[in-house]
Amino acid sequence: VTIANIIKGSYTASGSNHNKPIYQKEGSFGTVAVLIYYWDERDGPNFHGWWFGPKVGGDQVWAYSANKASQLPPTTGWKVPWDGAVDPSVQLTHGGGAQTTIPGRSSVLGGKGGMRPGMRAVNSKQLEEVKRREEESK
């Protein structure tokens, strides 16, 4: 299971956080929710921006954008992992209404889904559980 497989797909608005919309991935990825949400400056400048994670404000995240001015999740400028370099292959498109899409192509995230020391990411046990459930459902 790669981060690309976790985050690619269509998202629908589902509430708000810090006065900006939260988007939830349509469908499910095992037991892991996939959200795009905004976090303000309350925890310092390093955490202020847009995030992909399973829980709003959680300690586990997959990607980060420092674009604080955008009212919607930025279309480009996403760091994968959150403390890594900007990955130009991560591109969001905003559809009609309250929908955001990450194209389902294999190059999404450019293969940078590896873990780094200190990275806030879904732990390996959670990913193993998701993979196991996917295999069982086939």
Describe this structure in a few short sentences.
With 138 residues, the chain is of the alpha+beta class.
Describe this structure in words.
The chain is an alpha+beta fold. It has two helices and seven strands, in the order H-E-E-E-E-E-E-E-H. It has helices at 3-7, 124-137; strands at residues 9-17, 20-25, 35-39, 49-53, 63-65, 93-94, 99-102. A seven-stranded antiparallel β-sheet has the order 5-4-3-2-1-7-6, with no helix packed on it. A hairpin with a 4-residue loop joins strand 6 and strand 7. The chain is globular. The two termini are 15 Å apart. The model is unreliable at 104-127 (pLDDT under 50).
Tell me the structural class: alpha+beta
- The overall strand count is 7
Helix tally? 2
Q: Judging from the principal axes of the Cα atoms, what is the shape? A: globular
Oligomer: single chain
Q: How much is the radius of gyration in Å? A: 14 Å
Question: Proportion of β residues?
Answer: 15-25%
Low-confidence stretches: 104-127
Secondary structure elements and pairings:
Blueprint: H1 3-7, E1 9-17, E2 20-25, E3 35-39, E4 49-53, E5 63-65, E6 93-94, E7 99-102, H2 124-137
Antiparallel strand pairs: 1-2, 1-7, 2-3, 3-4, 4-5, 6-7
Overview features:
138 residues, alpha+beta, 7-stranded antiparallel sheet, 2 helices, 7 strands, 14% helix, 25% strand
